[in-house]
Amino acid sequence: MLARERPDVTVRVVLDKGHNAAITQMLDALNPEIARSVIDAGQDGPSIVLAIKQATDAGEIVALLVDRARPGDAAVTASFLGEDAPFPTAPWVIATMLRVPVVLAFGLYRGGREYELAFEVFSEELVAERHNRQQILHGLAQRYAERLQEYVRRAPYNWFNFYDFWQAHGTNPSTAPGAGAAAAGDRPAAGGGR
To answer: How many domains does the chain have?
Structure first.
């Protein structure tokens, strides 16, 4: 939709083309220009960061998922729906290295062809010095988890994973105190959001 309404704005999506072949094919079918502009997260870390830097230096918007850590990714735990859950640190490390603004985007499916889109300025510029980087990264992940939690509670069936999000920590979120509306059967189904 943004591409149609604001053709002057370039959006670059970061995703692993090899891991997300179906999404890559869907993007190609919907908008081949966006598909060609994907920054492949399957590259080595420095190549990804360089591609993101080139995009942001050119005034482009870079979009990436930050709600799930892949196996082997650096992660920190943050409280989410009453339990500790892993969140990746790479997006926050990149944002602090490049000192770029971070805007959170949430899309809630409302039925039929309707989506509610929400954009929130998370930070104008993230800064983390080497001596306090881990503490800052944990704080950023926790702030993000709190924002995600709010949207998951608003529309619990819009956020889903194809694996047990909490299992890596040996927890059972359905019995967690304070898990609230998304607990015990109301928790979002076990992969991405809409």
So the answer is: 2
Spatial CB neighbours of 107, under 8 Å, sequence gap ≥ 6: 115, 116, 117, 118, 158, 193, 194
Over the stretch 41-70, which tens digit does the pLDDT of each residue have?
888 989 999 999 999 999 999 998 888 887
Number of other residues whose CB lies within 10 A of the CB of residue 91: 21
Cα separation of 99 and 120, whole Å? Answer: 17
CA angle 86, 60, 7 (to 5 degrees): 120
> pTM for the complete prediction?
0.77
> Both 11 and 93 in a single domain?
no
In whole angstroms, what is the distance from residue 91 CA to residue 128 CA? Answer: 13
The alpha carbon of 72 is separated from its chain's Cα centroid by a whole number of angstroms, namely 17
